[in-house]
Design goal:
Length: about 350
């Protein structure tokens, strides 16, 4: 059975439209560039070519259908598709010019077609749906260590070790807001095995995905795994930092939290790019150049010196993304503690 949908496949000619009738199996839809798979720029795959959807007439009814088709939660909004990066402006075409859904259809294929054909890439549609899936590490000593579990259709369940690798652990640690991936155990011990269904197996992450749900995997619930094969991972604790000794939260001696203990950072190799990352992570605006005398005015730290030889490009969102020695390895004294001053 085929369902009508209007496609404008040749936007170079503003005077021609090409109509296609296609079955559900011949098209795919996804949301790209958002914080999770249920929010982002709307993209359609037509015979191997990914393209966008025009936002002319795009409304909450259309988003409701798309959310239903993707297995996401309720429709939340209709953001512009150009808000989501990365974009492929030079490569993509606007494949669907306009969609008219009443909100009750199961897929976009079933919606009424339209004859609009003057859309440009910067008019790409976006969609925001509730993300019904979530992830956690269960039965560990803290929220950054434990058995991998996903919530799907209101129920928590485990993830099979098949296909799991360090790249998947990196994605999960980042998704949870924890520190770097430390270790992956592809088998839980007797006391830490899960219960109930095993949703996923054959995970195949590159390590660059925003969430675990963005990684390719085998079909949900279709596997031959047992709870002997539940996946257990360890991430570093969440990377926290603060500036102390100043007049406000945006200036002072830099301290980072590791294993529940605050410690200082050595200034070997530290410069403007590292300052920028700290100010960005703290939401304190831009960094200010300050004389060594001003920086020393915040006083030396006490206790542990956690980081040394930190190297940032300046583009990182968090100091944990910068290169540095292993935690606690340094050749410094507290006379070399880093201090940072930000504009806000």
């Amino acid at each position: 059975m085929t369902n009508p949908m209007l496609f404008a496949l040749d936007l170079a000619s503003q005077h021609q439209l090409i109509f296609h009738l296609f079955s559900e199996s011949s098209s795919r839809v996804q949301l790209v560039g958002g914080p999770h798979r249920c929010e982002g720029r709307v993209e359609i795959d037509w015979n191997g070519q990914w393209g966008t959807v025009c936002d002319d007439g795009w409304d909450i009814n259309d988003v409701a259908v798309l959310c239903r088709e993707l297995g996401c939660g309720a429709a939340k909004g209709t953001p512009s598709g150009i808000l989501y990066k990365p974009s492929k402006e030079k490569e993509q075409k606007v494949l669907i010019q306009q969609v008219n859904c009443n909100g009750m259809e199961d897929t976009l294929d079933e919606c009424e077609p339209s004859d609009v054909f003057d859309c440009q890439y910067d008019e790409s549609a976006g969609a925001s749906c509730e993300n019904p899936e979530s992830v956690r590490l269960a039965d560990g000593p803290g929220r950054c260590q434990g058995r991998v579990e996903l919530k799907h259709e209101g129920q928590w369940s485990t993830v099979c070790k098949t296909g799991w690798n360090l790249q998947a652990t990196k994605v999960l640690c980042r998704q949870l807001g924890c520190g770097k991936a430390v270790q992956t155990h592809k088998r839980c011990n007797k006391d830490t095995r899960g219960h109930g269904p095993i949703w996923l197996s054959q995970m195949s992450c590159s390590g660059k995905e925003a969430t675990l749900q963005d990684c390719p995997s085998g079909p949900w619930e279709k596997n031959n795994c047992t709870h002997d094969e539940d996946t257990w991972v360890e991430c570093e604790d969440a990377f926290a930092l603060k500036l102390v000794g100043g007049d406000n939260l945006c200036s002072g001696r830099l301290e980072v939290l590791h294993k529940g203990v605050w410690g200082s950072v050595c200034d070997d190799g530290w410069g403007k790019k590292e300052d920028q990352v700290v100010c960005k992570q703290l939401g304190c605006g831009k960094s200010l150049s300050a004389s060594p005398k001003v920086r020393k005015s915040y006083g030396p730290g006490v206790g542990r010196i956690w980081l040394d030889d930190v190297r940032c490009s300046g583009e990182e969102q968090s100091l944990e993304q910068c290169q540095h020695r292993f935690w606690g390895y340094h050749d410094c004294t507290h006379k070399e503690d880093v201090a940072v001053i930000c504009t806000e």
